[in-house]
Amino acid sequence: MRQAHTITWQTGDGRDVEITVGLTVPGSLAGNLRTAEQTAERAITIKARLAGQGLGGWLVRESNHPLAVAHIGKLGITAANLARIDAVIAKLEASDEYQASKRMWAKWATEQANYETDHAAIERAMRAGE
After folding, report:
1. Residue 60 in contact with residue 74, Cβ under 8 Å?
2. Number of domains in the chain
3. Is a pLDDT exceeding 50 seen at residue 66?
4. 39-65 residue pLDDT tens
5. What is the DSSP letter of 4?
6. Interacting residues of 38 by C-beta distance below 8 A, sequence separation 6+
7. Mean pLDDT over all residues of the chain?
8. Contact, 5 vs 86, CB < 8 A?
9. Boundaries of domain holding 96
10. Is 42 exposed, middle or buried (0-12, 13-18, 19+ CB in 10 A)?
11. Cα 34–35–40 angle (5° rounding)?
């Protein structure tokens, strides 16, 4: 399941900014709880474009610029625009898909911890028998 919301504004010098905030969650773990690839599937992503060009980097919630409270790469983000981004993130995090994904990953983490504990116990038992 993928959801995406786009926020747009113009910079002070008139360039267009497009921020896409997306949610991607796996449909199921398909019984294979130990694959690292699936950890990357559950994510809220933020992609930025400035004047049509993609910007690399993460949303960083700090800035040395007097008008910006955050930035993505070299794109400064004002408090008002950060509030718009945060509102979309909150909406995505409140979605049924995201909540189901959180429950699924909590279950996965518990099962992974149990697996690690069992594996360590088996290794200790095998070493004791040497």
Report:
1. no
2. 1
3. yes
4. 444 567 788 888 888 887 788 888 888
5. E
6. 26, 29, 32
7. 81
8. no
9. 2-128
10. middle
11. 125
Q: Report the alpha-carbon distance of residue 28 to residue 106 in Å, rounded.
A: 14
> Tokens 């699936």, residue?
38
Q: In which residue are the tokens 């959180």 written?
A: 102
Residue 26 banded pLDDT, cuts 50, 70, 90 = low
Percent of the chain whose predicted confidence (pLDDT) is above 70:
83
The encoded tokens of residue 13 equal 């010098």
118-127 pLDDT tens trace: 999 999 888 8
The tokens for 121 are: 């116990």
47, 16 contact by CB (below 8 A):
no
b/e burial code for range 50-79 (CB count within 10 A of at least 16 → b) = beeeebeeebeeeeeeeebbbbbeebbbbe
